[in-house]
Amino acid sequence: MTAKKIVVVSAGLSTPSSTRQLADRLAADAVAALGERGVEAEVRTFELRELAHDITNHLLLGFAPPKLEEALDAVASADGLIAVTPIFTTSYAGLFKSFIDVIDPQALTDLPVLIGATGGTPRHSLAIDYAIRPLFTYLHAVPVTTGVFAATSDWGGSDGDGVRSLPDRIFRGAEEFADLVERTDRSQLVNDPFQLDRPFGHLIGGLAGE
Amino acid sequence: MQFGIFTVSDITQDPTTGRTPTEAERIQATVTIAKHAEEVGLDVFALGEHHNPPFWSSSPTTTLAYIAGQTSTLQLSTATTLITTNDPVKIAEDYAMLQHVSGGRADLMLGRGNTGPVYPWFGKDIRQGLPLAVENYELLHRLWREDVVDWSGKFRTPLQGFTSTPRPLDGVPPFVWHGSIRTPEVAEQAAFYGDGFFANHIFWPASHTQRMIALYRQRYEHHGHGTAAQAIVGLGGQVFMRKNSQDAVRDFRPYFDNAPVYGHGPSLEEFTQQTPLTVGSPQEVIDKTLGFRDYVGDYQRQLYLLDHAGLPLKTVLEQLDLLGGEVVPVLREEFAKDRPAEVPDAPTHASLVRAKYGDEAPRQATPNANRGDNLTVGSPYQDTDVDATAARQSGSAFGPAATRQGVAR
After folding, report:
1. Tens digit of each residue's pLDDT (9 = 90 or more) over A127-169
2. Measured between CB atoms, does A65 come within 8 Å of chain B?
3. Residue A66: strand, helix, or coil
4. Which residues of B touch A190 (CB under 8 A)?
5. Residue B221 burial class via C-beta count within 10 angstroms: exposed 0-12, middle 13-18, buried 19 and up
6. B303 near B309, Cβ under 8 Å?
């Protein structure tokens, strides 16, 4: 069986970044969860920071420079996407949204997504559900129920405020994600942007007799 | 192979002087540029169509007709004519007129335009862009080939017994190119009719153009117009030259950095690497252009964009001198090498007349006395086949049945 393709997109801006750290942990647990199901997975990670200029150029010009195109192709043909962004000013980072904006609107259809977000305080944790999740449902992707928010205090590891600890939430999200990734065969489908939806005769209303 | 230039008719501030030319200056400059294109030995001048500032070319056939009167060999074309928002009846009339006054030196390139607000200015709905392009062209195609057209469609009032005048010069419609950057349906449309396909090729990577052309060639063959290699392909290109490469980069950079489309985006170096833009010596332009053939095959028409982004007239004329004097002669020679015999030249009026009539004299449409009514009596033209007219009239003159009755194309 061919390995499932998991793409990780991290929109953290600093180096090192807690956003990247969360992304890596989500990916590791997802690979482990798939492993338990007897499914092999390969992971490719893209740091949007490294693509920031390309993303801007794409917004201005309408086409992707080669490095960005590679990332867009990887996301479009993935079996699962782990998307992680910092929360700035109550919502996803602008760079994260710009990346989403240059994705072809059809490219994420049926794609299992595990959402992660980071922020200074747990008070931003609902941003996953009011800001990030609608992006993916609009694009007909399939975000799993559990989104994982990591506040600065979460990295301390305690579950003092009565919710599950960060590692528990990561594990739970990864399990849900693995269930969907295991079942999909998206990466095996050919996605040809030059494919014609209908023969031309139909476009001109039968006059052409095709 | 044909070589020429195309302009979008932008009126842009010169970033090195801060000065913006007036509309009057830019219009006269464009006429000067077109005339100089012929003087330096280029084949084609193509003009865009826009209906909003900072562009001036709202009425391309007026401009092209004037240029036709000032030139003798230059082929006049468009880049592009809006098939979505122009009434196909008016396109049929205007370009047949341009054919007549230019002595058969006119063709046109159809496009959907890139300015959304244009649609409502002409009473159209932008959400219908592609269906408009498809239906309007089907009508245009018929208006040039049938003396009397009964027609009904979704986007304009029906026609009953309409004759587009004048009939195309020598009974041969102007050759049509379909231009597109990214829409495979347009490549399919060009292939379906056996028309030419022109890839903008300026703002997008070569890999994209390669796939669009490959699709067009494959579908051209599929629709039975010839082999894939015989499909009629045109490419855009964008160059800025100085005798030596460093001077070209230095002189063009301020125009690039502030250009309306790609300014403030990628660097000049990134853009030249990722797209067909060439900024350098004539030899570099020759090398890059010859490379186009590697990924689109032998093709028929190469147009360059030279006069945009605020470049002053003097500079544009210098570019034309280099293009006509040093670049194109070498390209003609090199492109002719190893060109398979089956690959045709770009269609011209003369070649289309020859293809249609052989050694026979071409049709010269002569009207009958005007009755003001094509519906009830014979043909409006003296030479029209009586049987075809009778066949047409045996069907319903009104309603959907009439439009299905179409005379053979």
Report:
1. 999 999 999 999 999 999 999 999 998 887 665 566 789 999 9
2. yes
3. helix
4. none
5. middle
6. no
Search chain A and give the residue with CA nearest B267.
Answer: A57
At residue A82, φ and ψ (nearest 5 deg) are -105, 115
Name the packing angle between helices B184-193 and B129-143 (round to 10°). 10
Task: Note the pLDDT of residue A71.
Answer: 97
| Min Cα separation A104/chain B (Å) | 13
Pairing of strands B2-7, B44-47: parallel
Q: Looking at the complex, report in whole angstroms how far the Cα of residue A201 sits from the nearest Cα belonging to chain B.
A: 8
Pairing state between β B149-151 and B159-162 = antiparallel
Q: Based on C-alpha coordinates, what's the Rg of chain B?
A: 22
Distance from CA of B276 to the nearest CA of A (A): 13
Contacts 24+ apart (CB under 8 A), A133-141: A135/A92, A135/A97, A135/A100, A136/A83, A136/A108, A139/A100, A139/A103, A139/A105, A139/A107, A139/A108, A139/A109, A140/A108, A140/A109, A140/A110, A141/A81, A141/A108, A141/A109, A141/A110, A141/A111, A141/A112, A141/A113
Whether A56 and B406 lie within 8 Å, measured CB to CB? no
Instruction: Kindly give the pairing relationship between strand A112-119 and strand B196-199.
Output: unpaired
Q: Are B407 and B379 in contact (CB under 8 A)?
A: no
Residue B154, both tokens: 């979704």
- Whether residue B204 and residue A62 make contact (CB cut-off 8 A), yes or no, is yes
Answer with the residue of higher pLDDT: B34 or B180: B34
Phi, psi of A7 (to 5 degrees): -110, 135
Q: Is B110 exposed, middle or buried (0-12, 13-18, 19+ CB in 10 A)?
A: buried
Cα B304 to Cα B46: distance, rounded to the nearest angstrom: 10
* B215 within 8 A of B208, measured Cβ to Cβ: no
Contact yes or no for A102/A9 (Cβ under 8 A)? no
Q: B304: which DSSP letter?
A: E
